[in-house]
Amino acid sequence: MKHLKIFILLGTLFFHANGFSWGQDGHRIVAEIAESQLNDKARDAISEIVGRQKLAILSTWPDEIRSDKAYDYTHPWHYVSLNDDESIYTLENRNPKGDILEALYRFEKQLKDPELTQEQQWQALAFYIHFVGDIHQPLHVGNRYDRGANDVKVKWFGEDSNLHRVWDSQLIDYYGLSYTEYVSFIDIAPESTIAEWVKASYEDWANESKTMRSQAYKLEQNQKGETDMGYKYAYWNRKDMELRLVQAGHRLGAKLNEIFGQ
């Protein structure tokens, strides 16, 4: 556990809020929902890896290390790029350094490997939790031409931002809730709906994000010709954002039960 504590400390030292996927609260919402869904066997197996740490703590580590150049090779794993005329099911133009789909399959396989050390298991679990969240953020299945809307400059309540950042964190932060409060408000889907959600594949998750991202691009300009987003944009996109967070949480819980709880 000593080395695991060092990982968390490094993540804290290198943390910077801008440009990260879903933001801290988004990932913690997903992880908190997932942890509430674990069966006893999965909970015990995960405790052997993480001790008493909450999954919410692990969920942000892959973003926290992105300011450390030693982890630059992990950057492409947070997203997959495809344009509107491309299909995730037949995508051939893939990043040779990896992408989020490749990473999800790889870390799922690692988590099933009994030969991994505890340290390797901890890292694999942190990455897996994080990437399940990322793939449900619509702009992490982004267009190539604007780098998942990172190049779409906007103003958020008058402050300079970009569309990707709005979806990563600013939409969630706007409501001023802690991640545990947010979970209590949005985790209300019927069991029958959840049962359908968890049948979907990684590719299905990505395709849902691709389909949903068109709504994210519906922007209006003010009299100065600026894309100044605020109350109206938050209102029209809140349901989509919350749906993706809840879907990610329940799907992550189901996958962890499949991996650890059989």
UniProtKB/TrEMBL annotation:
Keywords: Disulfide bond, Endonuclease, Glycoprotein, Hydrolase, Metal-binding, Nuclease. One of its GO terms (molecular function) is metal ion binding. InterPro entries: PLipase_C/P1_nuclease_dom_sf (IPR008947), S1/P1nuclease (IPR003154). Gene3D superfamilies: P1 Nuclease. GO terms for biological process: DNA catabolic process. Pfam families: S1-P1_nuclease. SUPFAM superfamilies: Phospholipase C/P1 nuclease. This is Endonuclease. It comes from Paraferrimonas sedimenticola. The lineage of its organism: Bacteria, Pseudomonadati, Pseudomonadota, Gammaproteobacteria, Alteromonadales.
